[in-house]
Each structure stands twice: as structure tokens, then as C-alpha cells.
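Support reply, case 0932

Customer input (verbatim):
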Amino acid sequence: MRTIVVLALFMLTVCAFTQTAASDITCIKKPGDAIARLSWTAPTHYENNDPLSVDNISHYTVAHIPPNGTELVYIVESGTSLEVPLFDNGRHRFTVKTHTHDGQESVSSASVCKEI
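Our regenerated output:
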């Protein structure tokens, strides 16, 4: 079973952007803001619509692909948000996966992007 997660990239406190799987990645452009503020909603169901207990979620992994193309992975053991400092100018792409205590891993969320 796979879980589905939705990732949002928050800039300031009022602007959020998510991307559907069918659309091209459009980046939020914030030249002076070198922090990506990521937030997502814990999934409540597996892909086949079976209920998923929040207690069964062990952690999340957030994949970050900076402009140089090298993937970085952050592990989030509690909560559903992460702030990532951005050191290189260009496009930074992010996806998130859910991991459960019984060894299941979700498919990656749709990608979000921030450009500095």
C-alpha cells in the first residue's frame, strides 16, 4: 500500500504554491529570501483509500534538488514542516514521502520549487 502526501512551499505567511502532477514546475521567485519554508499535511489514507493511522507514520523524507542537481534528503521525525536554508542561486525543487512503522513508503508528492 502506498500513501499520498501533498507538499506546499510557503513564502512569508500568506503565499502558498502546490503543483499538480500534470503541470510544469513553476517556481516561486524570491531573490532575497534564502529559506524554503515547507509544510505538508499528514496523509489519512493509503493510495487504495484504506485508512492510515497517524500513529503508524514513523517519519517523512524531504528530497531537495538544488541547482547543481545533487539530491539532498532531510529526515523529519516529528511534525509536518521544515525550513531549508538555500545557499545557491537558482531553482530548488522539493518533494516529500511518508514512511510508516510497518515499513511502507509513499510515492513522492508533487514537486514544489523556489528560485533565488
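We compared this against your earlier run and they match. Two observations from our side: The two ends are 37 Å apart (CA to CA). The chain has no helices and nine strands. Please reopen the case if you see a mismatch on your end.
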